[in-house]
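pasting input
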Amino acid sequence: MKILIPVFNILLIIFFPLLYAGVINCEKAWWCGRRGPSIWQPFYDFVRLLRKGAVISTATSPIFAIAPSITFSTMLIAALVVPLANNNSLIGFPGDFIFFAYLMGLGKFFSLLAAMDTGSSFEGMGASREITFSTFVEPAFFIVLASCAILTGQTAFNQVFSLIFLSPGIKVLSLLLCSAALFVMLLTEGCRTPVDDPNTHLELTMIHEVMVLDNSGPDLALLTYAHYLKMVLISAMIVNIFMPVLDNSLLSACLFSAGLILTALAVAVTELSVARLRMSHVPQFVYFMNSLGYILLFSIILIAFSGR
Amino acid sequence: MSKDFLRFKNHQSVRTSDIPWLSAGLFRDTVLKACQEGTRPILLDATGSDRFTVVLADDREHSLLCAGCVLEGKSGYQSLSAEFPAFHMFERELWENSGIVPIGHPWLKPVRYPHNAIESREMTDYPFFSVHGEEVHEVGVGPVHAGIIEPGHFRFMCNGERVFHLEIQLGYQHRGVEQLMLKGNFFNKSVLSESITGDSTIAHVSAYCGALEALAGITLSTRALSIRVFAQEIERAACHFGDLAALANDVAYLPASSFYGNFRTPLINMLQSICGNRFGKGLIRPGGVACDISQSSLPERREQLKDIRASFRIITEDLFSSASVLSRFEKTGTVPMETAAEIGMTGLAGRASGLAHDIRVHHPYSWYKLNRIEPVTQTGGDVLARALQRRDEAEQSFELALKILDELPAGELRRPPETLQASSMAVALTEGWRGEVAHMAVTGADGKLTRYRVKDPSFTNWFGLALAVRNNEISDFPLCNKSFNLSYCGNDL
């Protein structure tokens, strides 16, 4: 049974991102009283894009051509260190959350370069917005993960998430704070409402969508996939916080998948119940994650000291 | 004052020989004086290379004013725009169409053609205003846009996310509507006038028919007028539904967007069930209406309208009580009342800024003459005000449409007009959902049409949009644009 866990993890990495997108879209359509596309539509789109050729603007440098592959592969490698079912990641080592954060950063760096490379004023605006918001997310992510590390005394994703559920102290509060902070990160990094509008066709208001305007065919397929993989990984962290370590791997895998679907539904419900923020208010929202992180950190330090 | 002007009513035919012709200097003084007293321009029309007429609207006296200007050998006259910026689009159009130069015009740029139209048909080298500086950058959008919308070029001068200035270049949709009106039989131009702006079909074809019927000297039965106005109010409500859906969509508030869109369909289907076209094409024809609302369908239609109105109220309540939506709408794209009045904004956008111009109230025509209606206005001038204005006007339209269904009198549907009065002029203003639509028709001594002029509210309001986005975030432009929702082809003709 244990041997199946890595297999499950690999299947999850391959199939879940597009399913995740399908679930969000279906939920949104259903809520609005529309029939909406099939839950498998992202898969059809992915295959369709893979079968197409890519058009690459003559104004771009080779960076533009390789950036989608780099973004895709960094996300794929990052996926290896995030614990999925049964709190097991495919690889794990102390301090791997820093590795994770900087892999994400590397992927983002190249997608920003590629966006600037096209010379389009829209993509430049998109890149500038994306990096502004990421600047707020990155430190908050470290604060949250550092808090978890203090709480559990471990620095590897695997152990942090195995122990966090059992950790002593006012853990319910910490768990809630931690998951709320990661949910803000999910909305920001996933470019979902209220930060970005994934449905818009208006270049002037886009963030993520505008950066991939010039990509087509397989490149676009990879970028779309990497984007949803990123969302799945952040969701996986949220789910892991609430996942107990179970002896039954199958049950654990099912629970974990259900948890991911629940986060997808939560994202969809958030998108449906609020309008998008004004661009100048987005940093405030993203900074909310920092605030949650600080409260978390201080509460955990308090717990740690009172324990001694 | 009235000595210097020919004074007449909306939808009224007057003799062209009664128009007073003034010298350039006297004309300028007269028009400026009239404008100081609160009239506003409706049209400038060049009748030759050395003479043009102006039509002004006097809302307080409920009448229109017309005067002519003779240039006496000169090729220009002192521009009125410097004193009254409301004239600036009209003077640009006059200059472009006839070569008469408004001397001292502060912004003399083409309206529809390339700036060097004689040598070139290329629209690419428009003389844009430019802003220079280390951190200033330009963003050009269009003429091909991401959505399925009409072509137009927008040039933003920004500092980061903040817009300093927006310049809008239109003309890509110019089809020569006014010239086409003069070709062939003037009685057969209903289809052409329906196509001036597809979403204001009823407003434009009503104005065309109004001008024609005034020149033909016929009056319509109350039934025909009621059916016309019913169609007009349904068009208004349906377009407001569509715009509210689009506004909600632009701030990514999907439930409201979906449900407004959902209820717009039965509304425009009501026009389809009357005349076979969801935009009401083919319904209004010179002399009356081509299709009837059958007496037996009235109760059903009333029920349907009340159902739609009930749903509309539920969604509207939801939309305008959502804090996240209000935070996007409030203080976005504000046009203060003074600015709106200065640049001559009309219609819905003008009323949202507090200008109570409403043709149905101030220059009542057809059914509105028999039934007084109260103007609805807002004070904010921002996106929220324009959204609320749509809500209130849609409510009012439901009320008027229901009233028409309740009181629909019997009568003749259509009596086609046969001849036009010779040497006459008629101006027909109608209140479309976007604002005032003006059609002016002039006949010659032989009773044939010699001039035809069209003004869509978009023509004056585009500049309002350009001012609205100043000092706003560039990412709010689509929202501002949608809150005006102006017509490109109505401007380009």
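fyi Chain B is about 40% helix and 20% strand.
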